[in-house]
Amino acid sequence: MRVARTSQLFIPTLKEAPTDAQVASHKLLVRAGFIRQLGAGIYSYLPLAKRTIAKVEQIIREEMEAIGAQEFFLPALHPAEVWKESGRWDVMGDNMFRLKDRKGGDYCLGMTHEEIFTTIARAELRSYRQLPQVWYQIQTKFRDEPRPKSGLLRVRQFTMKDAYSFDVDVAGLDKSYEDQRRAYERIFTRCGLDFVAVQAHSGSMGGRESSEFMVRTEAGEDLVAACPKCRYAANTETATSRLPQEADAPSPAKYEKFATPGVVTIQALEKPPYGVAAKKQLKSLVYMADDKPVVAVVRGDQELNEAKLQTATGAQFVRPAHPEEIVPLMGARPGSLGAVGFTKAPVFVDPSLETRTDMVTGANEDGFHLRGVDVKRDILSHGRLADLRTVTAGEGCPRCDGTLDVFKALEVGHIFKLGTKYSESMKSSVLTPEGKETPIVMGSYGIGVDRIMAASIELHHDENGIIWPLSIAPFHATVLTLGSEPELVQAAEGVVKSLEAAGLEVLYDDRDERAGVKFKDADLLGIPIRIAVGKKGLAEGKVEWKLRTSKAVELVPVADVGARGAAILSELKRS
């Protein structure tokens, strides 16, 4: 539909945003009549949203096809058996929607489709001659999000483009991964997003390497550490940094236990009569990694990063240990814990502590600490180094002499080198040229389609409403009249036809409303080009031409409108 009339199109705009809406995209998508909420984290997409989503999907399809990807459409309802084969039926926990059929069989609603695509590969791919393969789909996904919020940014039902590559070896995977990375850059650029690709944590997906594509916005829930000097960027779940060398006194020949009654926090130990700076303290934290205890040691003024601990342990899932799990293991309650001489569970120590001496830590006895601790001598003799801490703004870049900035960001895409994680567990293999059976080497590549729409609004809006990039706007132009006189209506109809002939999609505001109402709605909807037909301009054979990205209004001859619109559309296609 290249032309739509506002009087006929369903656009239920609102003057006020919902009281629970906190972020710009949520407020404006509801106010502009793009979405309506059905339940917590569940939204209906109305006609304008469907038009924008369709354009995002078309861009994705064009770029996927450009790298040889083939489109599938797989079930959203999955039998439990395939998830049990991969080992993720239990790992996904409460995040997965589960149900039983009338015969008592276990099923789930798909959060992602690694298992389903692997079952197809297992059944159909037999030889290296059939590889590489790149398959993708645009499909509804489901996640039992515990705290749905922020409109389309944290939901329970969403649309994802997920792609999967199948190669005979790691070199093939590296090429497939690079093809996807470049395609993602083109997709997000074409959608008008200002993004950064960052090193990321693979989480429950597994694999040896992954990258996230992030949009910098205060509405984001991830933290990214980036260096403006060398363009290093990583999610804080994987980011590293340089820290200045600390000047420690030598450790005594033996650490010493001292009484600290009632002292159970880093801050309390900093105060008199103890006066131990947080940088001189060792913070020992007990976690359960796949239900097995581990101890993580970071500096007193640092924060443990749970994703890094998960990577260090190789566990599918980590969580803080409960007090009833800690005391029998450590012999003391939290606040008096330490890793000196502790061998009942694996001990992981952040590398920033490797050479530290004369440190203070808990004694594993309530009300007591140890001082004079030499980390290498007293802890690393039985512990191991692992990157554990969360980097902070102002720390040194790990790649150059620059300084890291840390900012909020919203994930819109994530790509993974899965390797053989799924093909081995689900026994999907092919024959090599030598006739040997080898597991297929896989990659997985996801884009949040709905999130692109929301992220665009987070980046492109003002106090009056949305400012759509031309490439994903529901309509390219809106035409309105500054009055209801027949000559204005007739001229507006002519403008609409000339724009349509030039290939533009047009929303014609034919309502019998005041000009102010039409202007406000045009700004709220965010249509890139606004053309107003009024008596004064028409007397000179001209109409008002205004871009949503500008405050300037230009008078353009009616005869030139189509050509000007065509030029803008042509530039979009070239870029």
Characterise the protein shown here.
- The protein is α+β, with helices and mostly antiparallel strands.
- The chain has three domains: 210 residues, Bira Bifunctional Protein, Domain 2 (BirA Bifunctional Protein, domain 2, 2-Layer Sandwich); 130 residues, YbaK protein (Alpha-Beta Complex), CATH 3.90.960.10; 100 residues, Anticodon-binding domain (Rossmann fold, 3-Layer(aba) Sandwich), CATH 3.40.50.800.
- It is 27% helix and 28% strand.
- The strands form eight sheets. Strands 4, 8, 9, 10, 11, 12, 13, 22 and 25 form a nine-stranded mixed sheet that branches.
- The radius of gyration is 29 Å and the shape is globular.
Mean pLDDT: 95
Count of alpha and pi helical runs: 16
Indicate the low-confidence ranges by residue numbers: none
- CATH topology-level name of the largest domain: BirA Bifunctional Protein, domain 2
Radius of gyration: 29 Å
CATH superfamily annotation of the largest domain: Bira Bifunctional Protein, Domain 2
**What does the main sheet amount to?**
9 strands, mixed
Form type: globular
What is the structural class?
alpha+beta
User: What is the count of β-strands?
Assistant: 32
